[in-house]
Structures are given as structure tokens and as C-alpha cells.
Here is the input.
Amino acid sequence: MGVLIVDDEPLARARLARQLQSIDGCQLLGEAADGESALQQLDSLDPDLLLLDIEMPGENGLQLATQITNRPNPPAIIFCTAHDEFALPAFAVAPSGYLLKPVNVEQLAQAIAQARRLSKPQLLQTESNSPTASSGRRQIKAVSRRGVQLIDVDDIRCFIAEDKYVIAHHSGGETVLDESLKELEAEFGERFVRVHRSAIVAREYITALVRNGSGRHYIHLRGVTAAPEVSRRLLSRVKSLLQQVETV
Here is the structure.
């Protein structure tokens, strides 16, 4: 994987260059200290990946990334920045990763491994060739101070709304998402079913419908401890779904 480092700080470029040497399958093609130099090297070197700072003199990293992603077959982009407040605007440009400085080699290796799978041209080609593309994304990005987490949708057992956020429960634990339950249901409605105004669950992971001593019903899901409550209004629908599953 050919890599171009774009950062106005020489020490930051040197640090990333040293770390790349220990990551299998990566080759440093060049370095740039500003957007103009980066665009010139982009044409001459044709890198697979950019490690891109955000705050730079002249054109900043967000502006540069917007230009690059609008090109045919753009490289993957991993932002490397000292500021976490750029995370949400950065992901409007659809990068493959977002790392906070000082970047350590483990974070960088993980982000590069993700970028290999999720570079924009590969993702678009995969989605266009996939017979299930209409059922939504294959992975969901969650941005936090620790960087970017990618969750396989097939591994998510349920989405539960709590206060202003939605929590995805999966085999690796719980992840807070900045997406609404309504949006997620609209996108993944073929795989998930609404059981409560605050919860949708993955059909394939439902193991049982349980009634407690107070008469409330809960869904048990394989692989997680979360057990979303089933509302009275949706109870008959859930029972019907379980009967269909049992007869298959």
C-alpha cells in the first residue's frame, strides 16, 4: 500500500514515516508539507493512502480532502490531527480513519488495515456489485476521542435509544452512535425489527421472548446481555415473527 504523508510539521512527518516502517504491506512514497505539494505528488505518485493533517498553512486538510475525494479513484484518507473537534466535519468527507496525535503505531496499523478494506473506490465497487446493497451499509463508523471504530452491521444485535443517543450492542460490547433510531430502521429494516419505540433488534439473533413477573415482555438475543423490552403495541408482531422463525 503506497502512502503519502501530508503534514506541515517535519517532526510529525518523521514520526509517521518511522511507524510505517514497522507496518507490513506499507511503502512510504513521499511527504508533503502543504496542500499544493500534496496535489502535485498525488498526480505523480498515485498513492493508495494519504495520512493527512488538518490544520496546515493555506488550504487545510478538510479542504484538500474534499478536492481529492471528488477525483476519479481517489486514495483512502486517514486524518492525523491534534484536535478532536474536527471529527464530525472530517467524516463528511468520508475518510477511512481519524487519529489523534500523538499517533501510536498500534492505532496507525489498525487504521491502515481498515483503510485497506474501506477505501472509497473499493467500497463503492463492493456496494454496487453486492446483491444486498439496498439493505444498507456493511459497517457503521462511530467517532469518539479515541478515534474511529468500525462496527460490522452483521455483528450488531440491537440498537437501543437512550436519551439523545443510540447505543449499538454487539459482540465487542456497546458503542454510542450519533445517528437516530428512525434513520437506522429505515436503512436496515430488512435485518432489524422494531420491538419498542426505543429499540430495534436483529432478527437473526433473537433467541426467545420472555415474560417477567410484572407481565412485561423482553427479547433475548444471542451473544449479548442486552434484553430490549417489547411494547404492548408491537407484541403481536414480535410473536408472529418468532412463529415464522420456528417454522423455517
